[in-house]
Structures are given as C-alpha cells and as structure tokens.
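In response to the reviewer comment on reproducibility (Comment 2.3), we provide here a single inverse folding case reported in full, input and output, so that an independent group could reproduce the run without further information from us. The structure tokens appear first.
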C-alpha cells in the first residue's frame, strides 16, 4: 500500500512538472517492497546443521501413520483396545501404565522381558505379536508399530525408528 502511495506521489509530481516524456522522474528515495516470489526460496527450511531434517520428519510422520494403521489391521486393538489402554487381560500399550520396564507379575507372554529401550519393545513385538500370529510382522512393521506407540506415549523420536537407532532410544 505504501508503495502505491509513493508511486502516486511520484506520478503527480511528474505531471505537475510538465509531464515531459524526456525528463526522468525526480529521484526520491523509495522504500523498496520486494515483489512476492513466484517460487519458494531455494534454501531448505531445515536448520543449517541438519539439512535432512525435513526428510527425516517426513519419514517419521509416514512411519507413525503406518504404525497406527498396522495397530488396527493386525488386530492389536482387539487385545489392547483402540485407545491402547489395555484391559483386565491385556496390558496397556499407551498411557501411564504402558510399557513398564519390568513385566507385570501376572504377565504370561512377556514374562522376564525388560523394556529399557525401543529395541527391547520392537524385538518383543516382532517375536511375540500379534498374539494369535506371533513372528509374522516384518522388521519394518514392528518398528512402525513401536514408533507410533512411543509417539503416543510422548517419547520424542527425531528420525524414523529402525534397527540402527532403536537401542539408543531409552524409554525412561
């Protein structure tokens, strides 16, 4: 808007001075307003120290979506409930009581297994879940489900969960 006012003022001044086509408009300092860019800037919106941050976030978001879908498709919700809160027969996988370090005393499937890292949970899920078809999940599927569970339990991941980083992700 300011640019339009300045241009109008320059035009009025030029017309008031005879409007000669051969004389240039008066040199007045004009605050330049950049024209809107037709394309986004070439630089990445990711922080300078992490040029792949956008890709990592995108891959992680996709993994969460896949994990959530697998939770439903592989019938995890049939035992652990849609909310992941569990019930009298099956443990919570989302919420305050979810994924305790030591298996509960009444645990049958998880007896003696400790959950310290994301790797511990992923290994358990891959080997023992779903209960009616244990060992049928691929590594990627197990990692996707665990990534979604961790995200639902407020465990912050910065990149896609896989075998290369799962052991480094501490649950507590």
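Designed residues, in position order:
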């Amino acid at each position: 808007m300011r640019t339009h006012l300045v241009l109008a003022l320059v035009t009025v001044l030029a017309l008031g001075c005879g409007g000669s086509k051969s004389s240039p408009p008066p040199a007045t300092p004009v605050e330049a307003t950049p024209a809107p860019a037709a394309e986004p800037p070439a630089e990445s919106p990711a922080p300078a120290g992490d040029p792949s941050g956008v890709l990592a976030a995108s891959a992680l978001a996709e993994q969460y979506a896949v994990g959530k879908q697998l939770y439903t498709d592989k019938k995890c919700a049939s035992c652990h409930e849609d909310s992941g809160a569990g019930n009298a027969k099956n443990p919570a996988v989302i919420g305050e009581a979810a994924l305790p370090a030591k298996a509960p005393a009444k645990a049958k499937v998880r007896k003696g297994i400790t959950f310290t890292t994301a790797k511990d949970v992923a290994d358990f899920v891959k080997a023992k879940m779903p209960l009616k078809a244990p060992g049928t999940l691929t590594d990627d599927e197990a990692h996707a489900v665990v990534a979604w569970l961790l995200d639902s339990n407020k465990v912050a991941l910065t990149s896609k969960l896989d075998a290369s980083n799962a052991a480094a992700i501490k649950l507590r």
